[in-house]
Amino acid sequence: MTLTRDDAQRGTPAPAPGTRTQQKRWRSADVRAGYAFLTPWLLGFLLLTVGPMLASLYLAFTDYNLFRSPSWVGFDNFTALFSDPRYIQSVKVTAVYVLVGTPIKLIAALAVAMLLNLKHSAQGAYRSIFYAPSLIGASVSIAIVWKAMFIDDGMVDKIGQFFGAPAGGWVGNPDMTMPMMILLAVWQFGAPMVIFLAGLKQVPAELYEAASVDGAGAVRKFLKITLPMLSPVIFFNLLLETINAFQVFNSAFIISGGTGGPAGSTLFYTLYLYIRGFTDFQMGYASAMAWVLVLVVGIITAVFFKTSKSWVHYSGETR
Amino acid sequence: MRITRSAVLGISVATTVALTLGACSGGGNGETTEPGAGDALDTDRDITLTLAWWGNDDRASKYEESVDLFEEQNPNITVQTQFQAWDDYWTARNTEAAGQALPDVMQMDLSYLRQYGATNQLADLNGQIGVNLDVGGFDEALLASGNLEGGQFGIPTSSNTLALFYNADLLDELGIEPPAEGYTWDEYDAWLTEVSEAGAGEDPVVFGGPDYSVTFWFFLQWLIQQGVEPFTEDGQLGFDEADLTSWLERTQPLRDAGVVYPIERTKQLEPLGGFTVNEAASEFSWDNFLAGYVADSGTDNIQMLPIPSGDDGTTSLFFKPSMLLSSSASSEEPEAAAALIDFLVNDPEVGRIFGTSKGVPAVAEQRDAMEIEPGSVDERVVAYEESVTDQATEAAPIPVEGFGAIEAEFKRLGEELLYETIDIEEFVSQWFNGAASSIPQS
Predict the structure, then answer these.
(1) Are residues B339 and B359 both part of a single domain?
(2) In chain B, how many domains are there?
(3) Does the residue B53 lie in any domain?
(4) B275 secondary structure, DSSP code
(5) For position A246, what pLDDT does the model report?
(6) B7 in a structural domain
(7) C-beta neighbour count of A221 within 10 angstroms
(8) CA A32 – CA A28 distance, rounded (Å)
(9) In terms of domains, do B108 and B201 share one?
(10) A40, A286, A312, B196: which could join A276 in a potential S-S bond, CB 3.0 to 4.6 Å?
(11) Domain residues of chain A, as ranges?
């Protein structure tokens, strides 16, 4: 397979002269129907996504405070960000969460996916059970349960005391809230796991058989076959989970009661954005924060794509 | 599973953009309200009003019962109700205010009165007074707390004032007497130390009380005792860095000695606190909190004292409206809205339904209609307010615009101070920086 999609189109033979206009008409009717079916989504996209986005871009350059009409302040909001200690704090908290949490979550997802890929009579049941946390994980209730587990004399505290760890819940201890948040994220590994699992099933069994014949061990097979064959899926998951991690909000909001506490240790970027916008009414500042986040996530995504050429192998691509 | 480069790009761009930017857009200011005599209520036409409040299910059933009575008396009016918990309530109202869509009648708090009143969100009810709204039963000073530069933007439903609550059973166990009336702040600090020392051997450990200095209203009350008006006429701060520093330095020895209830524990108990789990013997709060304290702690024997006295030996208490009722400036039915407010603040039957759950009713007819059992929570709250009436020498400070934000910031910095991630100097400078951006310059 050396044909890309563009080559394929260019290579299509031109239709016979007599059918050309007919086909054109047919095509435009097709296009019209396509747009007609697209309209509901398109309206929603324009009114609920593009419209508010443009509004927030404008507001980012104003001092809009929800109650008074906005007035233009230029780049003031953006320059103010960098002298705001809480903003710096929120960037630090989010960076740690993304840099530490995402790799751990992906490794856990891949490990479980590989276990679940083994042939076993109860395979289906195991897959459902391991996916379950992700189904309920996004809900508010799980954050509440999490908080109850990590509180003074909660389950985790009791287990810790049994093994001689210093007593005390994690929720009230600023040093322990980040590990707690990362654990919550890792526990919800289901979505990337399912994608990994699907990817693993696409790896041709002949490759492993051939490697076995050549005397390769399990580690070598994993490093030389599984990882390279899986690289598009790894890339996809890495990208998606990184972007998601930047946007963590619900769990931090619930566990800290909307304050980003204790002592700013769960002050995630989006949570601070929300506090600025809806508690302090500083919508202009909040909009500026949102756009900085979009830019940063955009740049990180671009860097991922640039570097991906060296380690991601798409099937059907030759170099 | 085949994943192409362009699919990955498409999905990632879509997720980034769609999830990151949930921004808000909103309109500008409404028109100014014209004071003047309003029209009489129209009884021929069908009218629909919207009514919103913050609170729990218990309050909701009380409101519903009252609204049913109102609809019985005014057959042409239908009232649509909605309620949320405190935080969500303000998020919803703030968003509505940005879109000029506030409810016809809504519960208002003193903290937000200026925010909404000074930005033309609320109707000036002066025009309705004497027409559809009777304020004859109100104490002048209490009514004035809903007044802003001549405009009556809220009608207080009930009043409350600060009190010291103490857990009498817990003190008995420790063998310590409650503070004697007329006690000073320094005497209270010494008493806290005494309780915490006695309670250190208990299981669980008992403390004297939480660190009161990180609550904004107590700081304001202390300022008033010092003769400092917290807020100026033109809606700016009336105190400076030095005032805040000396207030926070007063209690530094308590924090250093570990006398106050530990913040690590408080954070985990939220929304309860050390006092309501019977691990702290005392706490300052608003007097209408008694019902909640009794319910949460499971102890009925919670007693009340006035707050500590200032240097001149007086407490300089003030009655503040525990809540107000306001009408939206964009309401299309100002007469009916005023009639509903009138009913809710004046009708004796409504007074009986609510009791002291919103504070002590502002109007005598409602107070008298309450069915007060001797020794009940209602009776204790009413008795407390009566006992401190002659101490309540001050008018409630009218909060500046942005009060909600600076109050929240005070609480947040207080938390960091207790965690020792910042010191007093950083607290003061960060709080004043925040206040400068939250309070619009006049």
Answers:
(1) yes
(2) 2
(3) yes
(4) T
(5) 93
(6) no
(7) 15
(8) 6
(9) no
(10) A286
(11) 78-308
Estimate to the nearest angstrom the gap between the alpha carbon of A206 and the chain centroid: 33
pLDDT in tens, B422-439: 999 999 999 999 899 888
Residue B216, min C-alpha distance to chain A (Å): 16
Same domain, B93 and B134: yes
Q: Which of A5-9, A96-100, B175-179, B258-262 has the lowest mean pLDDT?
A: A5-9
Distance (Å) from the alpha carbon of A252 to chain B's nearest alpha carbon: 14
Q: Do A172 and B263 touch (CB under 8 A)?
A: yes
List pLDDT tens digits, range B333-344.
999 999 999 999
Does position B294 have pLDDT exceeding 60, yes or no?
Answer: yes
Residue B125: closest CA among B343, B350, B337, B320: B337
* pLDDT tens, position by position, A208-218: 999 999 988 88
Chain B nearest CA to A295, separation (Å) = 10
Question: Over chain B, what is the mean pLDDT?
Answer: 87
Q: Is the distance from CB of B87 to CB of B142 less than 8 angstroms? A: no
Task: Examine the domain organization and report whether B312 and B372 are in the same domain.
Answer: no
B166 and B182 share one domain = yes
CB-CB contact of A39 with A46 (8 Å): no
Residue A313 tokens read as 């192998």
Domain containing B249: what range? 162-318+397-438
CATH ID of A78-308, from 1.10.1370.30, 3.40.50.720, 3.40.50.2000, 1.10.3720.10: 1.10.3720.10
How far, in whole angstroms, is CA B277 from its chain's centroid? 22
**Radius of gyration of chain B from its Cα atoms, rounded to whole angstroms:** 24
CATH code for the domain of B110:
3.40.190.10
Which residues 190-229 of B are in CB contact (within 8 Å) with A? none
- Residue B310 placed within a domain: yes
- Which residue in A76, A247, A280, A289 has the most chain B C-beta atoms within 10 A of its own C-beta, making it the best mutation to test that interface? A280
Per-window interface: B 256-275 vs A, CB < 8 A = 263-268, 270-271
A301:B12 CB<8 A: yes
What is the rounded average pLDDT of the residues B401-407?
87
CA of A152, closest CA in chain B: separation in Å? 7
Q: Is residue B308 part of a domain?
A: yes
**Res B327 pLDDT > 90:** yes
Q: Do residues B76 and B182 both lie within one domain?
A: no
Q: A233 CB near a chain B CB, below 8 Å?
A: yes
- A300 in B contact zone (CB under 8 Å): no
